[in-house]
Amino acid sequence: MEVAVFYTTISTALFYLMSRAKLTQFAWSRYPTWLDYWLSCAACSGFWFGVGIAVLIGRTQEVGVFGLDPLAWYTPLVAGATEMVWTPILARLMIVSWMDLLVEPDDTDAIPDAREGESTEPLRIIPLEPPDNGA
């Protein structure tokens, strides 16, 4: 199970770095359309990142996901399917957690003067609440 968590962490980090991070914006802002489309999908890229991680790390270090034989032909496919599910979930959790860390300005002095026609209203971040199911 630890291997699956390790693979998911690497896959999510790769997804974020290759498609969302400000640090790597110089690269992902220049991607061709087909590559941008593929890398913007957490499930799609998660599958291929999982396959790549299982081949590069799993086979060389002989670490199989879920106790599977790391040299078996199906182990990268199982790792890819696992990452196809878990990469979007962990990516969403990561983004929501970062949104909760944003500080809401308490006055409009913190906002620079707007250009003509733009609003000077402070940005309000509304924390996401779980839906009330009447329970």
Explain this structure to me?
The chain crosses the membrane at residues 6-23, 35-59, 71-91. Keywords: Membrane, Transmembrane, Transmembrane helix. It is a single chain. With 135 residues, this protein is an all-alpha fold. The protein contains five helices and no strands. The radius of gyration is 20 Å and the shape is globular. The protein has one domain (2-103). Helix 1 (2-19) crosses helix 4 (42-61) and helix 1 crosses helix 5. It is 57% helix and 0% strand. The protein has helices at 2-19, 25-28, 33-40, 42-61, 75-101. The model has no long low-confidence stretch (mean pLDDT 82). The two termini are 33 Å apart.
Helix/strand structural class? mainly alpha
Oligomer: single chain
Low-confidence stretches: none
How much beta, percentage-wise? under 5%
- The overall pLDDT average reads 82
Total tally of structural domains: 1
Can you count the beta strands?
Answer: 0
* Euclidean distance between termini CA atoms: 33 Å
Helix content: 55-70%
**Radius of gyration, whole Å:** 20 Å
Could you give a quick summary of the protein structure above?
The chain has 135 residues and is mainly α. The protein contains five helices and no strands. Helix 1 crosses helix 4 (42-61) and helix 1 packs across helix 5.
Sum up the structure in keywords:
single chain, 135 residues, mainly alpha, 57% helix, transmembrane, membrane, transmembrane helix
